[in-house]
Amino acid sequence: MQTKIVLIIIFNHRYDDNLEKLDRIYKNRFSNVYYIMPFYDGPRLDVIPVYENSFCFQGYVAQALASFYMRDCTHYVFIGDDLLLNPNLNQPLFPRPPVRPPAFPTAFTSKANS
Question: What is the pTM of this model?
Fold first, then answer.
């Protein structure tokens, strides 16, 4: 299985001006880059809007999951928009996964005791 990474960049506030800068830094290093930004209403399809204040941005990922989830993805890398990854961290350098990740969403079922 080939390594497939999704880079998720989380904004704690709406800074549209940083999108182009971050594109220049990461688009050639990762094949899939998504941005999670509060209250975004622009035209870009790679920016996922979330509707929560920055004091609760653990809810950002839960709101955005259906928009960035890829069944054939092997790794997700989450960073803040104000953080720069080490230039040596690129998609080709990640190791191959030992097992296939589980499918999403998973159904929780209970079996009755027979």
Answer: 0.78
Tell whether omega for the bond before 105 is within 30 degrees of 0, i.e. cis: yes
Predicted local distance difference test score (pLDDT) of residue 114? 44
- B/e letters for 13-30, b = 16+ CB within 10 Å, e = fewer, are ebeeeebeebeeebeebb
Reported in sequence order, the residue ranges of the chain that DSSP labels E, i.e. its strands, are 5-10, 32-38, 47-50, 75-80
Q: Which of 64, 62, 67, 72 is nearest to 102 (CA)?
A: 72
